[in-house]
Design goal:
Elements lengths: L1 H9 L1 H20 L7 H26 L7 H18 L7 H28 L4 H20 L4 E2 L5 H5 L1 E2 L2 E2 H19 L1 H11 L1 H6 L4 H27 L1 E2 L7 H11 L11 H21 L6 H33 L15 E2 L6 E12 L2 E12 L3 E5 L6 H8 L7 E6 L2 E2 L5 H7 L1 E4 L11 H9 L10 H15 L14 H13 L5 E5 L7 H18 L2 E5 L3 H7 L2 E6 L2 E7 L5 H9 L19 E10 L3 E9 L3 E5 L6 H8 L7 E6 L2 E2 L5 H6 L2 E4 L3 H5 L6 H6 L3 H4 L6 H14 L16 H13 L5 E5 L7 H16 L3 E5 L3 H7 L2 E6 L2 E7 L8 H5 L5
Parallel strand pairs: 8-13, 8-14, 11-12, 12-13, 18-23, 18-24, 21-22, 22-23
Antiparallel strand pairs: 1-4, 2-3, 5-10, 6-7, 6-9, 9-10, 14-15, 16-17, 16-19, 19-20, 24-25
Length: 851
């Protein structure tokens, strides 16, 4: 604990705040040497800090969980009124100790009740925390006003010890605040609740998929907030010997400022409470200093509150400001082909490189001590489809970001359509004719197809005024170029994934793009949709001369589609040339640097004759699947294939407790199983590796170790965590799964996609599941990582784990599974045993062809 506190203090925000505190003391001491740096002034500041400190801690706790509590002031006022009313009722008795204890218990209970209401509204009824706590604040104030008839309740001096006494020279209320901060820091650092709160705030979807009781965890944070707010109300009662509904109107803003200034992420999942207390000191110094320096000016209160607001805005905007400064710094740094004394234009037209649409030459790029690219080059011919391949983390993304101006190369040149970009920026590369379509497509879901296309084309239009006729015309021209039918008035959110891909291409064409880079464009498409997309791309390349850079891990797809290929390994180009010169085995070898063995394994026999571990009996989920019956045995790999929307994913989610059955039943070991959530599924020994690792599987702001421990923290630990044991388990998982990292404390974002997928697997293997659901476990994973996952699946099956493998990869069904079921339109249309794989047209069935 002491070591962790030392690390917290040495962290950037802590050290910076400490420097701010020292600077404020020095500045105001120089400006008001006879008033500010005095004992009575510092003592007064200490008492004043206590009034806001507990409120800041309360808001910080809920912020860490991804929420916020705007009712803390009202809760504190009501708690003070309750306590004051109790001691007033016994004033004639001189407030005996029993009455004082009763008043404290009643006040804390009041805070817990309000916290419970807030927690239920936010966690269980799913009302936005701002709206929920604003509403509860209004209700609490109204109730307090009605009870007191808008009058002040007095404390009869019963709490004077809490409001004005000192321990040595430290005010008692400040001791309470810092003790609360220490206790809460211990809870958040060393308890299961704290760990889960950080994860729930970081990514509530992934938390739910990790069998974390998210609702219960968030509810606990609001209970803590209510108790802290009530304690704050008692301190105010001690300081003023009075309680009323009007006290502390601006304290909510001030508490939020202290929390955010102290490093609490307002969007959840990050922050340290002791740093919040350091922020509390800084804000109090600023407030007192302004009051001291401008004490004779009528505008001092305005200046003080304006300073608070400005400081809050600057603190919230700091990440964006740093990003802008960093981006401008990068774009102002000359690249290797421009001397430092030059003032180059954005582009320089050269003699066109005949037949070349994109040429990235001899590019090197390092991030700190890590070399992401070393002398890498890429040449894309006009009107061709060029495959850019490499394992996750090989440097593909860095190369494309250098070409598009997202990253500035340390050395090298970028040429687009005969123009060398001396200063490569996103705008310059787009103007020259390069567009990138990322995996997330970056479309606006709540705008129409026409609006999405027009917004991209608007950069090249002379008029900045939106013209609906022109928008529809441009969108129609772009869609017609693709030779597809997509309603222009349709909201993008309502389109299937395949049509969203086509809209993204149409948007790129509307900017007169000459080169389009597509990152894993087929990862979420069905075989039929892939065929349509490939046809569109090939038509644009052949008939319109558009060049495509196609980034994909699907080797069969690349060999059938690409004209040329460039392969990157460890930041260096290891192979390039016509794609016809490479077969699948050679592509895999060049990507990984080794021979990749086939995924095939012999059929397991441990499942023969054994009783089913899992049974679906005429099970149905509304909008998912209907009348499904199947069995899964220990040691068996059962494949579930079918096109998107076939019901295969719903089947996996129902077994994991995330989709309730509408009818039928699920049996585990012959006993009916009705999981209400993923927590109950985990207790039954079920684990799920979800389809979308970034959204559903990982906590991107957390460390590798935290991610590996997410699902097992309640499996191995009690209410208090054993950090050394947790670290050892993480290290063992990293070693056994061959996760490429130097330290389990590194952020998960430092890993490649394949290694991130291993972390998701490792997270669940730490729970030692009996039933493992794998939902498209190799999507977006390179060939080397696929091989490792295939071997792991075979190993787990051999150890007796029952595996439900949901996939649209034909080779995974044929080479990994003992049996396969194929679904379409929510029903099982075929069940195929291992012996019948060769004689069954699985490809057509998985693609959704039933006839």
């Amino acid at each position: 604990m002491i070591q962790q506190l030392r690390k917290d203090f040495l962290a950037d925000r802590s050290f910076g705040l400490f420097a701010v505190v020292v600077a404020l003391i020095a500045i105001f001491s120089i400006l008001e040497p006879g008033t500010f740096p005095t004992g009575p002034n510092f003592e007064s500041m200490a008492f004043q800090m206590s009034e806001i400190g507990l409120l800041a801690l309360a808001i910080a706790v809920t912020m860490i969980g991804g929420g916020i509590d705007l009712s803390v002031v009202a809760t504190g006022n009501l708690a003070g009124i309750v306590a004051g009313s109790i001691v007033t009722a016994h004033a004639a008795d001189g407030t005996p100790p029993g009455v004082l204890v009763l008043s404290i218990v009643a006040a804390i209970a009041t805070g817990l009740v309000v916290g419970l209401i807030n927690g239920v509204l936010v966690a269980h009824i799913n009302i936005h925390p701002i709206l929920a706590t604003l509403a509860s604040s209004t209700i609490v104030l109204g109730f307090a006003t009605a009870v007191t008839n808008a009058s002040t309740v007095f404390g009869q001096g019963a709490y004077s010890w809490l409001g004005s006494e000192t321990i040595w020279v430290v005010p008692v209320p400040l001791v309470v605040v810092f003790l609360a901060g220490l206790v809460l820091t211990f809870v958040l650092r060393s308890s299961r609740l704290g760990f889960r709160l950080y994860l729930s705030g970081s990514n509530p979807i992934a938390a739910s998929f990790s069998a974390i009781p998210v609702r219960r965890t968030i509810l606990a944070s609001y209970l803590l907030s209510g108790a802290l707010a009530a304690m704050s109300g008692l301190i105010v009662l001690g300081r003023t010997d009075a309680a009323n509904v009007d006290f502390g109107g601006s304290f909510v803003l001030l508490a939020i400022l202290v929390a955010v200034l102290g490093g609490i992420n307002p969007y959840g999942g990050e922050g340290r409470l002791l740093v919040v207390l350091l922020g509390l000191v800084a804000v109090q110094l600023l407030s007192t200093g302004i009051n001291t320096v401008f004490s004779e000016q009528s505008g001092s209160n305005f200046l003080k509150e304006a300073s608070w607001g400005l400081l809050l805005l600057v603190t919230l905007a700091a990440p964006a400001i740093r990003s802008v400064v960093s981006r401008r710094s990068r774009t102002s740094t000359p690249t290797a082909n421009v001397s430092a004394t030059e003032t180059p234009s954005t582009t320089e037209t050269l003699e066109p490189s005949e037949g070349i649409a994109l040429r990235v030459s001899n590019v090197s790029k390092s991030f700190g001590a890590v070399a992401a690219l070393t002398d890498a080059s890429l040449t894309v011919r006009t009107g061709t489809i060029h495959a850019l391949m490499g394992e996750n983390g090989s440097g593909k993304s860095t190369l494309t970001k250098v070409a598009s101006g997202v990253h500035t190369a340390d050395t090298g040149t970028v040429e687009i359509a005969g123009k060398v970009l001396n200063r490569v920026t996103p705008k310059a590369s787009s103007t020259a004719g390069l567009e990138v379509i990322y995996q997330d497509l970056a479309l606006f879901p709540h705008l129409t197809v026409a609006e999405n296309i027009y917004l991209a084309a608007d950069r090249a239009l002379p008029s900045k005024k939106m013209k609906w006729g022109e928008a529809n015309r441009l969108a129609r021209e772009s869609i017609d170029t693709l030779d597809v039918e997509i309603p222009l008035e349709e909201l993008v959110a309502d389109l299937p994934v395949a049509q969203k891909q086509l809209v993204a291409i149409a948007r790129a064409l509307s900017t007169n793009a000459k080169v389009i880079i597509m990152d894993e464009p087929t990862a979420a498409l069905t075989p039929a949709e892939i065929t349509q997309l490939i046809g569109v791309v090939r038509n644009l390349a052949t008939n319109d001369g558009i060049s495509f850079v196609f980034i994909s891990h699907k080797l069969e797809e690349v060999t059938s589609l690409a004209d040329d290929v460039t392969i990157i390994r460890d930041g260096k180009v290891v192979a390039a040339g016509p794609c016809a010169d490479y077969d699948i085995a050679e592509l895999a070898r060049q990507m990984s640097g080794r021979d990749i063995s086939a995924a095939a394994r012999t059929r397991t026999t441990t499942a023969d004759g054994s009783k089913p571990v899992v049974e679906f009996q005429n099970a149905s989920v509304k909008g998912g699947f209907e009348g499904v019956s199947l069995e899964l045995r220990a040691g068996e790999v059962l494949g579930v294939g079918g096109p998107l929307g076939s019901g295969r994913r719903s089947l996996a989610l129902s077994l994991f407790g995330l989709l309730p059955l509408e009818q039928g039943s699920i049996l585990i070991d012959g006993q009916e199983f009705k999981p209400r959530n993923s927590v109950e599924a985990q207790r039954a020994g079920i684990a799920l590796v979800p389809e979308d690792r970034r959204t559903e599987g990982l906590f991107m702001s957390r460390s590798i170790g935290d991610n590996l421990s997410a699902a097992s923290i309640g499996h191995h630990d009690g209410r208090l965590l054993d950090h050394s044991a947790t670290a050892e388990r993480s290290k063992e998982s990293i070693k056994s799964l061959e996760i490429k990292t130097s330290n389990h404390q590194n952020l998960i974002t430092t890993l490649s996609g394949g290694n991130q997928q291993r972390v998701v697997l490792g997270k669940w293997l730490q729970t030692k599941p009996r039933i493992l659901i794998l939902d498209r476990p190799t999507v977006g994973v390179d060939v080397g990582s696929k091989e490792g996952i295939y071997k792991l699946v075979a190993q787990l099956a051999a150890e007796g784990v029952a595996i439900l493998l949901v996939t649209d990869e034909l080779d995974e069904l044929e080479n990994l599974c003992d049996r396969a079921v194929v679904m379409n339109s929510g029903r099982i249309i075929e069940q195929v045993s291992f012996e019948d794989f060769e004689t069954t047209d699985l490809r057509s069935l998985v693609a959704g062809k039933t006839a």
